[in-house]
Amino acid sequence: MSKQAPVIVITGTPGTGKTTHAQLLVEESPVPLKHINVGDLVKEKELYEAYDEDWQSYTVDEDKLLDELEPTASEGGIVLDWHTSDIFPERWVDLVVVLRCDHTRLWERLEKRGYPLKKIQENNEAEIMEVVLDEARSSYASEIVVELKSESTEDLESNVARIVQWIETWRKDHGTTEQ
């Protein structure tokens, strides 16, 4: 059975706008898409091994997470929103969108969230060093990895419009244009 809609991963350093992009994409998509905030899913379904007080985050149990997502991913029609992408099997993923943001703007966004200084510094350094982008490029075919700037409302709208166009092309290529 072929997928009726693609699996899209929206990834980036915390604070780059993944969830906002995913929510708008679900609203604008020409095919039904379900937004899965992976961090929230991990908490809701207890798909973690422990909570790290220093980093104020969970240590994810990757096997449990992948088992949880497998049935949904094989059907397609999902947007996976998470700060990492290399955990998802290549066979699941049709498009990886890596959101990028100027580190000064990113710092301000993370401060507004009340992140501890150590976490802001670590995430800022990851953004400057292109950690998430490198991870995506080393895990997936280059033609499915797209790097998009995410610094303004204009960027958000333009990015979502580009992804919607990509979905239209994907549908034609996969013969799923009938409603």
Automatic annotation (TrEMBL):
Region named LID: 112-122
Subcellular location: Cytoplasm; Nucleus
Top EC category: transferase
EC number(s) from the headed UniProt entry: 2.7.4.3
Record's GO cellular component terms: cytoplasm; nucleus
Pfam family, one: AAA_18
UniProt KW Kinase keyword: yes
Ranges for region NMPbind: 37-60
Keyword Nucleus (UniProt): yes
Keywords, sorted A to Z: ATP-binding, Cytoplasm, Hydrolase, Kinase, Nucleotide-binding, Nucleus, Ribosome biogenesis, rRNA processing, Transferase
InterPro entries xrefs: Adenyl_kinase_AK6 (IPR020618), P-loop_NTPase (IPR027417)
Subunit structure, as described in the record: Interacts with small ribosomal subunit protein uS11. Not a structural component of 43S pre-ribosomes, but transiently interacts with them by binding to uS11.
Entry-linked HAMAP family: Adenylate_kinase_AK6
Family note: Belongs to the adenylate kinase family. AK6 subfamily.
Protein name per Swiss-Prot or TrEMBL: Adenylate kinase isoenzyme 6 homolog
UniProt lineage: Eukaryota, Fungi, Dikarya, Basidiomycota, Agaricomycotina
